[in-house]
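seq:
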Amino acid sequence: MLNAAQLVASFRRHTLSPVEVMCAVLDRATRLDPRVNGLCGIDEEGALTAACEAEERWAKRSPCGPLDGVPVSVKDLVAVRGMPTRYGSLTARADLEHTDAPAVARLRQAGAILFGKTTTSEFGNKIVTDSPLTGVTRNPWDTRRSSGGSSGGSAVAVALGMGPLSLATDGGGSIRIPACWSGVVGFKPSFGLVPAGSASSFVALSSLGPIARCVEDAALMLGVMAGPASADPFAGVERGRDYRTGLADSIAGLRIAFSPQPTGVTVDPSIAACVRRAVLLLEALGARVEEVEVRPLAGYRESKMHSIQWAVSFARRVREMSAVQRTRLDPDVRELAQFGEQVSTAAFVDALAARHTLVQEMAGFFEEYDLLVTPVFHMGPPHVPGLPEALRMAPPLTSWCNQTGQPAVSVPCGLTDEGLPAGLQIISARGADAVVLRVARAYESARGPFPAPPPMADAVEHTAPVGCPS
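struct:
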């Protein structure tokens, strides 16, 4: 399975064609996706047409952008022209979108082939991917377990080679957690760096970002999407930056805070061991690592600031639905909305005030340190179906970054005692996305290649997609 940068290099050398690659992706989707349920829609005809057009451009040595001919999937919370946006919900209409979301439009302009939509929990509501519309999405390493969520479909698609890149969203860990549990790279940019369009929320928590097989691909995709959109009042950064520039620079001398058991959470010992080995590698690369207690986060879990804001946003969404629509919702969404309806004005204002304080205190923390590293999640993926009661709170190791708007990445850092991927989370100050990616790349290079999920012995028999040679 080649990554996006390798595909582009192959197109340039004419050793591979976009049509060959697109057919291979469609073939893998045909064979593997029935086992994991990561894709909820494929525009096969449109993908093959776009691949032929890309092939003609490469034949003339005139690619239209840095992703010309590269297959990219998109989480089904984000609009893609010519495909429906269903949000994992039986309440959503199946009308085809007439316009792309801003980030999708930029991917298309860069030549990406937007071939399919990936599964999500309903409206991205939780950290496992299941919904009334599309059912359960399973982990590519162990199909008895969850892929994570709410961007589980995107993580699964990338992990299994159903396209090297996927556009996902993260409102509390929804990129990083499934990337961690699926053994791929997931990057949540600084809030507002990638325009969210209608995928944003009024509480300003969700960011759009890449899920990829390697850090270089995440940086490539981020550079294509980043920059303000005229309709996005929160975006405030310039376009045109290539986040691959300086990606391979040394990390020697960077001040890295290491929090092995953040916010009082008990981390599974085998996950903790993987993360600690990763930190030792960072130290061997010349970073100045200090094990710390992150005091601004000491009371984060008990404050419920994220849970309150998240629930209120869902209460608002459900309030606008008809009585019939509400009966068709995932019970978890109804429960979340009911909690949001019970939040008093005073409690909501207190949550916003606590958020403001956390933003200030973490800004101070990142004046003392360049980066913070932690585990992505304190335990491995739960079995399907359902979401255990203990995991229904805001994910304590990831959601605070959404409160502060800071960039954070999940990079695979080993396999647990159960043979499942563990993730290293690297975080920095808002706007320091390039630094996060540079440290992630340095670790990834020192770690060496990460294994792919084990073969699926019971994958569906091969049938060539329409339009592709068998």
